[in-house]
Amino acid sequence: MNKVFLQGLLLIFLFFGGYFLLAQIDWINFFSVNKIKNSSEKKLGDILWSSIKNSEKECYDTEVIKGIDSIVTKICLANGIDKDDIKLHIIKKDVVNAFAMPDGYLVVYTGLIKEADNAEEVAGVIAHEVAHIKLNHVMKKLVKELGLSMIISATTGGSDPQVIKSVIKLLTSSAFDRNMEKEADITGVEYLLKAQINPEALAEFMFKIARTDKVSGYFKWISTHPEGSDRSKYILEYSKLKKPVEFKKVISDKTWALIQERLNEE
Amino acid sequence: MQTIEFPFKVSDHEAEKASNSYLMSLIAVIAGLPLPILNLLATVVFYFANRRATYFVRWHCTQALLSQLSLFFINSFGFWWTVSIIFFDETISSNYIAYMIIVLITNFIEFIATIYTAVKTRRGEHVSWWFYGGLTDIICKK
Predict the structure, then answer these.
(1) Candidates A3, A15, A33; nearest CB to B102
(2) Which of B74, B89, B94 is the closest to A25 by Cβ?
(3) Residue A136 Rama label (left phi>0; alpha psi -120 to 50; beta)
(4) CB contact under 8 A, A23 and B89
(5) Which of A67, A201, A203, B88 could connect to A120 by a Cys-Cys bridge, CB 3.0–4.6 Å?
(6) Count of structural domains within chain B
């Protein structure tokens, strides 16, 4: 009996000991896991963006691009995010929408900028989307909704236009799951606080646009889930937990007015 | 693993049944790769079907069942870890890869041992595994 018990113990020890020894090796680098992951994400992001670029009109107005880009830069700088990781593109469309795509693509519609009352509201939305990118929500959502095989088939060889279409539809018109949205809200607030931008603007903007009919797709969904009032509540509660921050204007009133002027001219 | 003299003379029919208990788990490996519980179920069904069989058959059914039981826990953990990586927030880590390598090694050793034992028992030879053999001696009463 004792012999069997000792043999059993030795077997367990061998199993876990072997595991412990193997776990000391950096397998991620050994198999270049991150490299493979990043290259397929990059490929997918590029394919999706070129497809959107072909079907939509991109905004090339330097004042608008410069203004919005400086908001992104400010958020990135304050939070130690490499600005090159975020690829900002502005689409000329009178719809309130903004979404993240694989490999750090951040697409903002001019309709959203026009609908915002101030630059802080746009900054709130950008912080929320950057959070989705940095938390790797985009790839997680795609794998969950479409399956790994479909993602691989979209990035390898002659990618099926039908697959690309469904991926774009998924990213532009359906939301992340509730937990991911909340996580992006909280991380977004953290980004805003570090950049000395008032996070209340994000809550207010979501609350406001949920009641307009210009909103569509993904943004319609996230502005109503969680309910605007719930979102305001936990955003405010979270902001209070952090040490008080002196808020500053994300861009000058003059720049903001110029952006609005340019967009309304078009 | 060692081949020892069995106290009784083993008939051809008994040897075939005892050998089948190992083959059951081998066949189930194919179906059981995505769902580890299938391996275990196959040996459990075979074990219960042979509860009233001769000592030699029962002994080998028990040894096959015990080895599959431990493999079931090891594989299930790996299976659910993989599921959580694909569908949930878990990410591929060095710990995960290390676990999968040890799972693969364990399954390979078990696979070879099972084939070896299935062949030997078919010839009527009694093969007792290290630890599992001793445990089977305790559980399986004459």
Answers:
(1) A15
(2) B94
(3) left
(4) no
(5) A201
(6) 1
